[in-house]
Amino acid sequence: MFGKNWALSPRAYAVTVQEDFVIPLQDGTRLVGVLYRPQTSDPVPLIVGFHPYPNDQQTVPLVPVGFGLQRGHMEAGDPNFYARRGYAHGVFNVRGTGKSTGTYQAMGPLEGDDVAQAIEWLAARPWCDGQVGMFGVSYFSRLAIQVAARAPAPLKAIFAPYGLTDLYRDLYYHGGIFTHGFVSGWRQKLDGLRYESLYRQRHGEEALLQAIARAKDDDELMAIEPVRAALERPDEPRNAVIVDLVLEPLDGEFYAERRVDYRKAHVPGYFGACWNIYGLQLGSAFRNFEEWQGPKKLLIGPPNYLDRPLYQLQFESLRWFDHWLKGNDTGFLEEPPVRLFEPGLGTWRAADEWPLPETRWMPFYLHADGILAEHEIWDWETGTSFEDSPFGHGGAAFFTPPVVERTQICGPASLTLHVSTTDAEFLAFASVFKVDREGREDEVSRGWLRASQRALDPVGSRPWAPRHLHEGRAPLTPGEVYRLDVAIMPFSVCLAPGERLGLRVKAADDEPRPDPLRATAFGHVARQEAARITIHHTPDLASCLHLPIVSGSVQETYFSGGRLEMPGPLPLAKMQKLKPTPELRAEDA
Fold first, then answer.
1. How far is Cα 97 from Cα 31, in angstroms, rounded to an integer?
2. Secondary structure (3-state) at 442
3. Virtual torsion, Cα 272, 274, 275, 281, nearest 10 deg
4. Which of 186, 195, 345, 427 has the smallest count of CB within 10 Å of its CB?
């Protein structure tokens, strides 16, 4: 790959592979993996990645296929690509997985410390020139971001798209609602897992047993078979992974120590995701870009993730690593830092910041008869009600009129709901979807909130992106109206004339999963009590969705959909009836 004024490292080397390569750590733990090196006597830069999956499956010689559950863990990239271009590339298991020793840390701080120490050791090998980068997606990138925030001296750059940075909000507890679906399947991918309850280590055996007993009294949890089975047999390693999460339902120390501390994040970082991964990594991608302290790039791609085994973004990453590890000025920093794919248009947009500077958040009010529009609430409106129970999950849907101009919506959205329920709790599931001219729906984003955890973070919240503390639960009083501010994950959609945008509010996510990628936004617990839920939309309680309009909707939407009214008879008798003129009083003069 080359441009007019730059060229990337050429494909010039044969490759040597060292299986079962061992990295010794100071506490006696050994991290084991495979090392690919170019056949040269000169020291070279190193690219490295760490993960908990079967290591031999990361580099299997398979023709890539689309993302799915079977191959989703093949995230390392192709080491042959980098080794042939003058880089060593290592892929290693974290402690407690694969052939590495020790016990698994569930993405805890010791894991990041391990890798920072491993990078120091690898950089000192005679075949390494002391310059190290980190590559890979998902688990690889999550860990790369954690390590970069520790700032080990040899680490010069990370290429870390699809990297989680807030495990509570972005993965395990969407809006405070436990997400059992993803973790129930994901834990099966952990290779040779050695895991001991971190809750037991932190609180002791008696506290563990008491916490499990309380969890067994929770109908939401016991209605989920994998969760119930894990609570019955909590010492099995894969069950213990779930139990530790179930016993930490609030955003406390367990999640805080797994969250990225951006204060020392000065290593150049390349971040990103795709639009359809809003149930897992999309929120973290934007957070990483906004919070990162060093040079940074953001790439949000088509809603397809990447093929597996991973090979894409190899030239993009080579350009990044050539710049920071080899001093090869590839012109990267002269280009805008943000690139976004525009679904519906099939084009890319470059920008200097996020959210896009031209964004204007328009309030679309929830109205009677399922209307979603900028029109002010009518005086006669009251609300929309639906039923929810284990026997059937109802909901309320609202639709904009058909747009009359191409309208592009891109960015985070916020949903304000005024809600009452007959229950002491409400789990809000809000889905946003595009509706084409034939009425077909295509979901583009979601938002979640446990109503008892509605307290906002006064520091971290923004008008377009509410952030909740999730430090405790305040049960609802049945019949009382509560304001809920629901963060809708960033999305990008282009509405052509005649198309509409829809919003659906439910108390569960029992709909069919659209595809394996968007399935990460599903799989939550649900209430086991029957309830009637009312969304209030009155002049004093205006429930609304703030949409990030980038272009179009200049004159707002048209209730008519742009259809002109044909002339008809005028009520002339009514219109022309003479009305008495009020007498002018002296004090009015």
1. 9
2. strand
3. -60
4. 345
What pLDDT is attached to residue 567? Answer: 82
Name the residue type at position 117: Q
Q: H-helix or E-strand containing 229?
A: helix 225-232
Which segments of 452-577 are extended strands (E)?
482-495, 500-506, 531-536, 544-551
Determine the Cα–Cα distance for residues 280 and 303; give it in Å rounded to an integer. Answer: 13
Which contacts of 41-44 are long-range, i.e. CB under 8 A and separated by 24 or more positions? 42/129, 43/126, 43/127, 43/128, 43/129, 43/130, 44/86, 44/87, 44/88, 44/127, 44/128, 44/129
Which of 208, 169, 213, 109 is closest to 471 using CA atoms?
169
- Rounded (5°) CA angle 411-179-308: 70
* Cα dihedral value 245, 248, 253, 256, nearest 10: 50
The full 3-state SS of 276-297, as one line of letters, equals: CCCCCCHHHHHHHHHHCCCCEE
- CATH class of the domain defined by 360-551: mainly beta
Q: Where are the beta strands (DSSP E) in 343-426?
A: 347-351, 360-366, 372-373, 383-389, 392-393, 395-399, 407-421
Q: What is the pLDDT of residue 586?
A: 59
Q: Specify the pLDDT at position 584.
A: 63
The pLDDT value given to residue 475: 97
295 vs 275: CA distance, rounded Å: 23
Ramachandran area for residue 99 (φ above 0: left; ψ -120 to 50: alpha; else beta): alpha
Nearest to 187 by CA among 142, 226, 135: 226
> Using CA atoms, how far apart are residues 519 and 516, in angstroms rounded to an integer?
5
Hunting for tokens 């099995």 — which residue is that? 236
Whether the domain at 15-165+260-351 and the domain at 360-551 fall into the same CATH topology: no
Where are the strands (E) in 242-322, listed by range? 269-274, 296-301
Domain ranges for the chain: 15-165+260-351, 176-256, 360-551
Which regions in the chain score pLDDT beneath 50?
none
Q: Measure the CA–CA gap between 535 and 377, rounded to whole angstroms.
A: 13
Domain 15-165+260-351 is in which class?
alpha beta
Write the pLDDT tens digit of every residue in 73-127. 999 999 999 999 999 999 999 999 999 999 999 999 999 999 999 999 999 999 9
The DSSP code sequence of 116-176 is HHHHHHHHTSTTEEEEEEEE-STHHHHHHHHHHTT--TTEEEEE-TT--S-HIIIIIEETT
Distance (Å) of CA 218 to CA 223, 264, 527, 577 = 9, 40, 10, 68
Q: How far apart are CA 300 and CA 308, in angstroms?
A: 18
495: its two tokens: 């509405």
Cα Rg for the chain, rounded, in angstroms?
27
Structural element, H or E, at residue 317: helix 314-325
Give Cα 462 to chain centroid, integer Å. 17
